[in-house]
Amino acid sequence: MPTTSAPIRIGYCLSLTGPLAGNSRSAQLVHDIWGEDVNSRGGLLGRRVELVRYDDHAGASRVPGLYKRLIDDDEVDLVIGGYGTNTVLPAMPLMMERQRFFVGLMGLGVNNTLAYPNYFAMIPTGPDPNAALTEGFFALAAE
Q1: pTM (predicted TM-score)
Q2: Where are the beta strands (DSSP E) in the chain?
Q3: What is the per-residue pLDDT across 97-106, written as a single tens digit (0 to 9) for each?
Q4: What distances in angstroms separate CA 26 from CA 33, 42, 83, one per listed residue?
């Protein structure tokens, strides 16, 4: 299927520098491979995919401004969260204010108290995400 019209623009932040850079650079590589693969097969819904990403330097205080830029200046179609709670949570107030669908990558319990219906977390931790990753360890230790 040939691509038509404007690309689908997906915007997000990653901590490409700072203490989380190792994880984020791996994610960046995967995103780039995915984008190239999708575009080589005609795009998504017949449209090319364009990734717009900014380095948040693992600084939560930078995140709201970067997401505002993605939405207002870059006019992305979809926003996804960074690689962790530290960079997903600070974006939530803006996503809620703008009523944007927001996919968080690995953000633990980001939406527990906010209960924002347009947030989706891509981490399989169930209804108690803050405890889920350590439950098995502590259960084993208790035995």
Answers
A1: 0.81
A2: 8-14, 49-55, 78-83, 102-105, 119-121
A3: 999 999 887 7
A4: 11, 25, 10
